[in-house]
Amino acid sequence: MSSVAVIRAQVERRLPGALTVYERQTPEVFPSGIASIDSEIGGIPKGALTQVCAPVGNTSGRTTLLLSLLAQVTGKDQYCAVVDANDCFDPESAAAGGVCLSRLLWVRCSDRGMKSVEQAFKAADILIQNGGFGVIALDLGSVDEKLIRKIPLTTWFRFTRVMEALPTALVILLTHSAAQSCAALTLNMGASVEWSGSESASHARLISSVQFELAIGRTSSKKPAQSARTNFTVRPQWA
């Protein structure tokens, strides 16, 4: 018997299963409802934190992705919640996107600045502790990046640990990747806009389509795929 086999046998005798390789189970997911995204990542993982990142003020597809996800989950008779830090959520757009508003809890934060961020996290914490939601979305997408950077890493870590025991997806909209390794999935989003009409008359031009680009920064179900990209197009209702 080789020396490696002898050492292995001794270790296994003292610590049964210590050298056994266990395959990581693929987490259960909610489909986002966007085929090109679901084919790449499978869906939004349950029992985990997902961060969707895009710069403030830029069309990115972040809201489109969120509304599509909420439409999928509320359409299956599950309840969802949106914690809105800067009062940006539009119920009419959500309803037009297929979200069942009777199964959606909308939490609007009344303060501004860091107080609004603190309110949002307290509200999300209460919702997570009480349970009963398929998706809890925390919208910090319009919060200044310097305020997000004040959130300690321990906060993200605590949310991650609590989520592991729940059949709920926690989705956080951000300007940048703040949860770091605490996130099971990180999506970085951007977009380019195509216009119709005469370039000489800007007031008469309409958006004909929006091409969204999504870069997968981190995924717990696969190896990190920093360069993985996918695209999807959305056309306005008048096009």
Model description:
With 239 residues, the chain is of the alpha/beta class. The chain has a single domain (27-234), classed as P-loop containing nucleotide triphosphate hydrolases (Rossmann fold), CATH 3.40.50.300. It is 29% helix and 26% strand. It has helices at 3-14, 35-41, 62-74, 91-96, 114-130, 145-148, 153-163; strands at 29-30, 44-45, 48-53, 80-84, 104-108, 135-139, 169-174, 185-196, 206-219, 229-234. The strands form two sheets. An eight-stranded mixed beta sheet has the order 5-4-6-7-3-8-9-10, sandwiched between helices. It has a two-stranded antiparallel sheet with strand order 1-2. Strand 4 (80-84), helix 4 and strand 5 (104-108) form a beta-alpha-beta unit. The protein is globular and about 80 Å long. The model is unreliable at 222-227 (pLDDT under 50).
Give a short overview.
This protein is an alpha/beta fold and 239 residues long. The chain has helices at residues 3-14, 35-41, 62-74, 91-96, 114-130, 145-148, 153-163, and strands spanning 29-30, 44-45, 48-53, 80-84, 104-108, 135-139, 169-174, 185-196, 206-219, 229-234.
